[in-house]
Design goal:
By secondary structure, the protein is of the alpha/beta class. Helices cover 48% and strands 14% of the residues. The protein folds into 2 domains: 155 residues, NAD(P)-binding Rossmann-like Domain (Rossmann fold, 3-Layer(aba) Sandwich), CATH 3.40.50; 96 residues, ProC C-terminal domain-like (ProC C-terminal domain-like fold, Orthogonal Bundle). The chain binds NADP nicotinamide-adenine-dinucleotide phosphate.
Amino acid sequence: MSARPHIVLIGCGKMGASLLRGWLDHNIDAEFSVIEPHDIDIPGVQHFKSINDAAKSLQTASTIILAVKPQAMLNVCNELEPHIAPDTTILSIAAGQSLNSFADYFGSTQPVIRTMPNTPAAIGKGMSVAVANAHVTDEAKVLVTTLLKTAGKLEWTDDESLLDAVTALSGSGPAYVFYLIEMLEKAGIESGLPAEMAVALARQTVIGAAALAETDHETPPATLRENVTSPGGTTAAALKILMDGRAQNLFTEALQAATARSRELNS
Ligand SMILES: NC(=O)c1ccc[n+]([C@@H]2O[C@H](COP(=O)([O-])OP(=O)(O)OC[C@H]3O[C@@H](n4cnc5c(N)ncnc54)[C@H](OP(=O)(O)O)[C@@H]3O)[C@@H](O)[C@H]2O)c1
C-alpha cells in the first residue's frame, strides 16, 4: 500500500456523499476517486461515470467503498470483479449484504468489511458498527476506522450475526426518534397547545434532551431521567403511565420485527 491511500467511492448518493463530505471536511490524507453516474462537483476528487471508465484507477485502490443500493450491488460487484487487486479492501455500507455474499463475488480471500451506518452520519453524528472478514489487515482496519469515525461513533464487532439487531436499533433508530417527535406534537395538541407551538416544543425538547445525553455521556440515561423527575410532580405523573411496561413492550416488539426483517433480507 502506498503512503497516501487511494480511496474509491462507488455510489455518491445520500450516504456516499455524506461520507465523502466528512472525509474532505476532516482533511483525511488520502487520494479520493468517485464512481457515480450523475454529475458531481467536488474539487480535488477524481470523478468517473462508470466502473469501466475507472478501470485503471481501481487497480491502485487501497479501499473501495460500496455505497450503492442493495439492488444495484450484484451488477456493481460483477462489473468490479475484473478490476480489483487481491489486497484491496472492500468496504460495504449496504444493508443486508453479508460478508459471505461478497466472497461469492470477489473470491474467498478478498479483504471485506461490512458496516451499518445511520443517517445522522450526514452531520457527523452517526453510529456505525463494522465487522471484518479474516483477510482484512490491521492497517486496513485503522484506515477504515479513520474514515468511518468522520461520520460519528464507530464500534467494531467480531460477530456478524449482531448486524441484524444493529440495523434494528441504530440503523432504523433515527426513524423511531422522529416518530417520538410526531407523537409528542400530537399529544401536545390534544393537551390544548396550538399546532405550531406543539411541533416547536416537541422538536426542541428532543434536540435538547439528546444534546444533554451527549454532554453528560457518563451519566446513565436512567439518572438523566430521574434528574427531571421530582417525587409527586408532573414528570412523575407522566412517567407512571409511560413506564407501566406497555411502551417498553412496544419497543421490544418493534426491534424484534426489524431484526427479523433484516434476517429475511439477508437470507
Ligand atoms: N440512506 C440511509 O439511511 C442508509 C443507512 C444505512 C445504510 N445505507 C446503505 O447505503 C447504501 C446507499 O444508500 P443511499 O440512500 O445513499 O442510496 P442513493 O442515494 O440511491 O445512492 C446510491 C448512488 O449510487 C449510484 N449508482 C447506481 N449504480 C451505480 C453504479 N453501477 N456505479 C456507480 N454508482 C451507481 C446511484 O445512481 P442512480 O440514482 O442513478 O441509481 C446513486 O447516485 C445502500 O446500500 C443502503 O443500504 C443507507
